[in-house]
TrEMBL record:
This is 3-oxoacyl-(Acyl-carrier-protein) synthase III. Pathway: Lipid metabolism. Belongs to the thiolase-like superfamily. FabH family. The lineage of its organism: Bacteria, Pseudomonadati, Pseudomonadota, Gammaproteobacteria, Lysobacterales. The keyword NADP does not apply. It comes from the Bacteria. GO terms for biological process: fatty acid biosynthetic process. Residues 88-177 form the Beta-ketoacyl-[acyl-carrier-protein] synthase III C-terminal domain. The keyword Transcription does not apply. InterPro entries: ACP_syn_III_C (IPR013747), ACP_syn_III_N (IPR013751), Thiolase-like (IPR016039). Signal peptide: none annotated. One of its GO terms (molecular function) is 3-oxoacyl-[acyl-carrier-protein] synthase activity.
Length: 177
């Protein structure tokens, strides 16, 4: 599925998984969530032959991912920017009320762009991509786990979790931890 000689796509898949256990509470914990999808961007990140074509472990043969990295970056930053605004509006909150940004760990440049949009210094952003690489769907739960175990995140703080992924899909959750 991955051409290991093509830097733009070989870094897309790390190895990791995470889960979050929720329990009932009298206090609100999930303040707002949002989820979007738009297949109109399929030409920017796709597999030209489809997975049903099979896989041969030869360079550039069979199932390989193609990505227009710069364009994916632009779409990710734009959609995450509007997602932040939408999520905060749904919760009736301001950017200044977010204690921590816990983003999908795909790319440090996307993380930095989102933090800049929120006027957040990077010391209020959880970054694990430098430790674990891009663990795809596992990156947000793994980053949340790191934030809690490291003692950075404290009870009562507001956390904005956000992700952008294949398909294209993008989502957020605004939580009070």
């Amino acid at each position: 599925m991955v051409d290991w000689t093509e830097r733009e796509t070989c870094v897309l898949f790390g190895d990791g998984a995470g889960a979050v256990v929720l329990e009932a509470s009298d206090e609100p914990g999930i303040l707002a969530t949002r989820l979007h999808a738009d297949g109109g961007f399929k030409h920017l990140l796709f597999n030209p032959v489809g997975v049903s074509a099979g896989f041969k472990d030869e360079p550039n043969h069979g199932v390989r991912i193609n990505m227009s990295g710069r364009e994916v970056f632009k779409v990710a930053v734009k959609t995450l920017d509007s997602l932040v605004e939408e999520t905060l509006a749904a919760a009736g909150m301001q950017e200044s009320e977010i204690d921590w940004l816990i983003p999908h760990q795909a790319n440090l440049r996307i993380i930095e762009a989102t933090a800049k949009r929120l006027n957040m210094s990077m010391d209020r952003v959880i970054v694990t991509v430098d430790k674990h690489a891009n663990t795809s769907a596992g990156s947000v739960p793994l980053a949340l786990d790191y934030a809690v175990r490291s003692g950075k995140v404290q009870r009562g703080q507001n956390l904005l979790l956000e992700a952008f992924g294949g398909g294209f899909t993008w989502a957020s959750a605004l939580l009070r931890y």
